Amino acid sequence: AQSVTQLDSHVSVSEGTPVLLRCNYSSSYSPSLFWYVQHPNKGLQLLLKYTSAATLVKGINGFEAEFKKSETSFHLTKPSAHMSDAAEYFCVVSEASYQLTFGKGTKLSVIP
Amino acid sequence: EAQVTQNPRYLITVTGKKLTVTCSQNMNHEYMSWYRQDPGLGLRQIYYSMNVEVTDKGDVPEGYKVSRKEKRNFPLILESPSPNQTSLYFCASSKLAGGPEYEQYFGPGTRLTVT
């Protein structure tokens, strides 16, 4: 069975400083992994996805994530936070069943 | 514009009054799914459909029904809503060809309150 653990429910950073949102996963197969973002009162938007190609994945808005099989991690990073990055971020795992399993989310606050 | 639409966006109803939330996609996607989002729990899958007339339970199917009579539509039915079904609901769709790595496109959400 697949599962996802987002290690922080809330992260707060200052504008211009790096962002690190942590995600560990569990999967019996070679999973697909995703990060989605949800801005207040909005739907979900795909940030990036890992599908067994390059382990370092670049997404939209300057975000990237690195797949580390030995650590079963897929942490999301951004070198410099912007006010518009304030949102809730979800790490998601998918096996061959096409079913997505979502983490519980990490709320990112950006302090001016 | 490629999109997933849901209606209504907001709904307040009373316990036991049947309701339907519609979902439609214009991308010719085979796969469609319903999720509910609750604070601190992330999104949990209610039902999904791999194609017309093919549906299956997700993680939290109790109290919900779905149907997939047309490829573009995937309505969510609450036959007898209860207050514990108060939640934010999302419909999503994706291609099936090529495997599970295809991203799911999400609708804007339906906020349901059951009193």
Report on the architecture of this protein.
The complex is a heterodimer of chains A (112) and B (115). Chain A has strands spanning 3-6, 10-14, 19-21, 23-26, 32-38, 44-50, 56-58, 64-68, 73-78, 87-94, 100-102, 106-111. By secondary structure, chain A is mainly β. In chain A, the strands form three sheets. In chain A, strands 2, 5, 6, 10, 11 and 12 form a six-stranded mixed β-sheet that branches. A four-stranded antiparallel β-sheet of chain A has the order 3-9-8-7, with no helix packed on it. A two-stranded antiparallel sheet of chain A has the order 1-4. The termini of chain A are far apart. By secondary structure, chain B is an all-beta fold. In chain B, a hairpin with a 3-residue loop joins strand 4 and strand 5 (42-51). The mean pLDDT of chain B is 93.
Tell me the quaternary state: heterodimer
Radius of gyration of chain B: 13 Å
Specify Rg of chain A, calculated over alpha carbons.
13 Å
State the end-to-end distance of chain B: 36 Å
Mean pLDDT of chain B: 93
- Which spans of chain A have pLDDT < 50 for at least 5 consecutive residues? none
Shape call of chain A? globular
Percent in strands of chain B: over 45%
* Beta-strand residue percentage of chain A: over 45%
Structural class of chain B: mainly beta
How would you sum up the major sheet of chain A? Answer: 6 strands, mixed
Which class do the helix and strand fractions of chain A yield?
A: mainly beta
Shape label of chain B: globular
Low-pLDDT windows of residues of chain B: none
Number of helices of chain B: 0
User: Overall pLDDT of chain A, averaged?
Assistant: 91
Q: What does the main sheet of chain B amount to?
A: 7 strands, mixed
Q: Can you give the helix content of chain B as a percent range?
A: under 10%
Secondary structure: number of strands of chain B: 11
- End-to-end distance of chain A: 41 Å
